[in-house]
Specification:
Elements (H helix, E strand, L loop, with lengths): L1 E5 L9 E8 L5 E5 L6 E7 L2 E3 L6 E2 L3 E4 L6 E5 L4 E7 L19 E3 L6 H13 L3 H15 L7 H12 L6 H7 L4 H12 L3 H16 L6 H7 L5 H12 L3 H6 L5
Antiparallel strand pairs: 1-2, 2-9, 3-8, 4-7, 4-9, 5-6, 5-8, 7-10
Pfam family, one: DUF6597
Keywords: DNA-binding, Transcription, Transcription regulation
InterPro entries: AraC_XylS_family_regulators (IPR050204), DUF6597 (IPR046532), Homeodomain-like_sf (IPR009057), HTH_AraC (IPR018060)
């Protein structure tokens, strides 16, 4: 398994957090991918990648978009598969996409739903024929630069994203809306339109990822729940299983590729 992270060129850094290059080499791999806060664009340059497990799997298109989701995905990488994933910054997807982001929630869609099929096919042909990752990243960046359009991100949504991150997701949404002099309904609509998910589930994603990242060997599940603000163990267990697909103890006993 090879996982490389690449920083975008300066022209794309305001819009893209990072590029991940994922290769399975000669063995099939299955990885549990937790929900994140970035809408992602994925471009395959070899093999096959599927969403799901066993007979319940769905082959992912060679070029795809994954909207924000609230539960984990099981991704299977067939032998000799290779994928480049572009993680978009929160609030910046409209610089590439005209479609309402909230309608993409929980979905994985072929990129030819958003761009001309001929353009996607040309990029895929170039990626499959490229001799190394440096060339592939250059091909992908050229394509994305041609798709950039003028976009002024919503400062209210970006401020809310930053506040939620700083609080590690442990922040009342009514308090956040009030601090911006907005009704909770108006705040939620602006956030959802800019980010692709309502603020409360977005904060839950940040909160649970922060808890998982903070876990250390020997730390009890009860203490982890309390540190995350879950004073009811049963509530924490339910929220954790919805998020990861597994109970806490089982999840932490398994290895993850990333």
């Amino acid at each position: 398994m090879i996982l490389e992270t690449h920083i975008p060129s300066p022209a794309l850094q305001p819009y893209i957090k990072a590029f991940h290059v994922i290769e399975s080499q000669g063995l099939p791999l299955e990885n549990r991918v937790l929900p994140g806060t970035a809408i992602s664009l994925a471009f395959r340059f070899g093999g096959q990648v599927a969403d799901g497990h066993g007979l319940q799997h769905t082959v992912i298109p060679e070029a795809s978009l994954a909207g924000l989701r609230q539960s984990a995905r099981l991704i299977t990488y067939r032998p000799h598969s290779g994928t480049i994933v572009a993680l978009l910054r929160e609030g910046m997807a409209p610089a590439f996409l005209r479609e309402p982001l909230y309608e993409m929630k929980g979905l994985t869609l072929g990129l030819d739903s958003f761009f001309a099929h001929s353009e996607i096919a040309r990029v895929q042909e170039q990626l499959f024929g490229a001799c190394n990752h440096r060339v592939r990243l250059a091909i992908l960046e050229r394509f994305l630069l041609t798709k950039l359009r003028p976009h002024e991100p919503d400062p209210t949504a970006l401020h809310a994203v930053a506040a939620i991150r700083q609080a590690k997701g442990w922040l009342p949404m009514a308090e956040l809306a009030s601090g911006m002099c907005l009704s909770q309904d108006a705040f939620e609509k602006r956030f959802r339109r800019a980010v692709g998910l309502s603020p409360k589930p977005f904060a839950d994603i940040v909160r649970l990822n922060a808890l998982i990242d903070a876990n250390r060997p020997g730390r009890s599940i009860q203490r982890l729940a309390l540190e995350g603000g879950y004073f009811d163990q049963a509530h924490f267990n339910r929220a954790f299983k919805r998020f990861t697909g597994l109970p806490p103890r089982q999840f932490f006993s398994q290895s993850r590729l990333w």
